[in-house]
Amino acid sequence: MGGEDHNSSGLPPFILTGLPGMETSQHWLFLLLGVLYTISIVGNALILFIIKEEQSLHQPMYYFLSLLSGNDLGVSFSTLPTVLAVFCFHLREISFNSCMSQMFFIHLFSFMESGILLAMSFDRYVAICNPLRYSTVLTDARVVWMGVCVFLRSFCMIFPLPFLLKRLPFCKANVLSHAYCLHPDLIRLPCGDTSINNIFGLSIVISTFGLDSALILLSYVLILHSVLAIASREERLKTLNTCVSHLCAVLIFYVPKVGVSMFARYGRHAPHYVHTLLSLIYLFVPPMLNPVIYSIKTKEIRRRLSKILLGT
C-alpha cells in the first residue's frame, strides 16, 4: 500500500499505530487509557458543574478555569474515537478526511489551551499586582471577549493546515506513528514539496506556544517582584499560594510538550514505542491532572465535590 501513488484528490486512507512491538499488551494499555479518559472526562465535567452551581465561584478566575476544563474535554473527545478503535477493536484504518478533521481539532484545542493558560496568568497578574482594579479590569464581558479571542486566534492558525496538506500528493508509506492524527506525523508522508507546510507550521508554533510561554514567564516575573515587596512572610506565602494551581497547569502542559519536541529531535534511535508513550503523556496527562489539581487546591470546589461524592 505504501508503494502505490496516492494523490489527495483520491483521498488516501491512513493506517494508525498503537504501540509497535507491544501488540500483545495493548489491551492492558487500553485499560490504562480508559482510566485516564474516565478521570479526565468525569473530572472536567464535575469542575464545570460545580462552577455553574456554586455562586461563590462566579468570578473571573473560575470562568477561566471553566474554559480550561471545557477545552480539556475537547482534547479528550478528539482522541477518544481512534484510540478506542485501535486499542480496543483493532481498527487501524482512517479515511483522509476523518484524519484531517481529527488533526484539526487536536491542534485547535492544544493551541486554545496555551491561550487559556496565558489568560489565566493575566488574571493572576491583575489580582496580585493591581488588586484594587481587578473587578474593573476583568469584567464578565472582558472575560468573554478574551475567551472568544483565544478561540479565534487558534482557529485562524489551524484552519489552513488541512488545506495545505490536501494539496500535496501522498505517495509514500501511509502508516502513522500514533493512534491519532497529528500534523508533524502527517507532514512526513507527502512526496511533494512540503517547505510551505513546514514554514507555516513553525511560524504558528512560535507565534502561539513560544509567545504564550514567554508572556506567562513575564507575568510571573512581575508577580514575583510584587510579592517580594510584601513585608509579611505569611502574606507572601498566602499570595503565592493563589498561583500554585495555575503554575502546575502550566508545567504539566508545557513540560511534556517540550519533552516530546526534544525527544523527537535527539532521541531518534530510541525504540519507537517511547515516542508513542511520550505523545500519549502530552495529550492525556494535562486533561487528567488539571481537575485533580484544582479540586485539591480550591476549597470551594473541594467542599462541593465532597458533598456530591457523599450524596449530601
What is the helix/strand order? EEHHEHHHHEHHHHHH
Number of strands: 4
Radius of gyration of CA atoms, rounded to a whole number? 21 Å
Biggest sheet layout: 2 strands, antiparallel
Please state how the strands of the largest beta sheet are arranged side by side: 1-4
Q: What's the end-to-end separation, in Å?
A: 59 Å
Q: Helical stretch count?
A: 12
Question: Structural class, judged by helices and strands?
Answer: mainly alpha
Shape: globular
**DSSP strand (E) fraction?**
under 5%
The overall average pLDDT, rounded, is: 86
Indicate the percent of residues in helices: over 70%
Low-pLDDT sequence parts: 1-9
Can you offer a commentary on this structure?
By secondary structure, the chain is mainly alpha-helical. 73% of the residues lie in helices and 3% in strands. The chain is built from twelve helices and four strands. Strands 1-4 form a two-stranded antiparallel ribbon. The radius of gyration is 21 Å and the shape is globular.
Give the topology.
Blueprint: E1 6-7, E2 14-15, H1 26-53, H2 60-87, E3 93-94, H3 96-129, H4 134-137, H5 140-158, H6 160-166, E4 169-170, H7 183-186, H8 195-228, H9 233-241, H10 244-266, H11 272-297, H12 299-310
Antiparallel strand pairs: 1-4, 2-3
Short descriptors:
two-stranded antiparallel ribbon; Olfactory receptor; mainly alpha; 4 strands
Short description:
With 312 residues, the protein is mostly helical.
